[in-house]
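$ ./design --mode recover --in tokens.txt
reading tokens...
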């Protein structure tokens, strides 16, 4: 496993992050989840991402149970706040009131005394960003949080947060968790340049476009009970991008990679990239996707991929 510093910090994280969205605490038993987490640890993954809203707190709880009896210092645990977690007007948002209460709840569910990376799950137009950044820094000062990051922020919000921190002498965001994959590259227009300017590392979610960048849909059919079978947006993208996906798969197969491995490897070649967040329903999924760290793409190959995608990226590929 290779490790990268997360943004403009000294925190080292594995090039692949294991995420808890959808499966942990809801669709998988503790034994199944623990087997996945154990496989990730064995493969050198030290970076794990969850959120308070995932399975209404149960994803954090199962992560907390798994960590018991293991060296806490081995793990970089990331979680998020913003979404509704209790009734009433302060049960959601990025106010000082919500952030501090939500952090305390996450610490309890995770059964730990600190969160390595505490992230805002999204912006909150009802709360001044200055209040939010001060609240996050209060948590750092209290020793409850080590580093802070954001998710689903655009370039303007990233820049505004950074300016507030400069003016007030506060700790800044070190990461952005955006939707980003070969088929979804909107962040390249303004968020990526802002991350490069302000020193944020990318930890993208849905790096496989919710399974579209896998072998599952290559023949154009949608398996029963698959994500696409329940999601009209995915069906639409599949219909529009099937030939592109098939072209990418052929490119990958010619190099003895799976489409998933190449899609993750492609992300690891993008500017400001730290670690794509993978999901897994079995240890084998972890072991397969971890091979993305071995994917090496030349400048010529990266250009060939752009041709297949039919996209001229705003952010230059390195």
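writing sequence...
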């Amino acid at each position: 496993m290779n490790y990268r510093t997360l943004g403009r910090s000294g925190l080292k994280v594995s090039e692949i992050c294991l995420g808890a969205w959808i499966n942990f605490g809801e669709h998988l038993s503790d034994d199944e989840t623990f087997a996945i987490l154990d496989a990730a640890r064995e493969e050198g993954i030290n970076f794990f991402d969850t959120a308070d809203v995932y399975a209404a707190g149960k994803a954090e709880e199962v992560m907390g149970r798994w960590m018991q009896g293991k060296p806490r210092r081995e793990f970089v645990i990331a979680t998020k706040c913003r979404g509704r977690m209790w009734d009433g007007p302060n049960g959601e948002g990025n106010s000082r009131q919500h952030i501090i209460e939500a952090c305390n709840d996450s610490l309890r569910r995770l059964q730990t005394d600190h969160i390595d990376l505490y992230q805002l799950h999204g912006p909150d137009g009802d709360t001044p960003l200055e209040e939010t950044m001060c609240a996050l820094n209060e948590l750092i000062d209290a020793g409850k949080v080590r580093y802070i990051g954001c998710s689903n922020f655009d370039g303007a919000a990233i820049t505004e947060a950074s300016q507030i921190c400069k003016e007030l002498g506060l700790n800044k965001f070190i990461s952005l968790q955006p939707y980003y994959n070969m088929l979804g590259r909107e962040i390249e227009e303004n968020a990526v340049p802002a991350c490069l300017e302000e020193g944020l590392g990318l930890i993208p979610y849905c790096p496989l476009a919710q399974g579209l960048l896998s072998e599952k849909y290559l023949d154009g059919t949608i398996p029963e009970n698959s994500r696409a079978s329940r999601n009209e947006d995915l069906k639409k993208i599949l219909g529009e991008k099937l030939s592109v996906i098939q072209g990418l798969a052929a490119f990958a197969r010619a190099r003895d990679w799976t489409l998933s491995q190449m899609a993750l490897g492609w992300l690891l070649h993008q500017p400001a990239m730290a670690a794509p967040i993978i999901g897994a329903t079995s240890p084998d999924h972890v072991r397969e996707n971890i091979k993305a760290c071995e994917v090496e793409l030349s400048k010529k190959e990266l250009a060939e991929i752009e041709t297949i995608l039919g996209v001229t990226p705003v952010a230059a590929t390195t």
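exit 0
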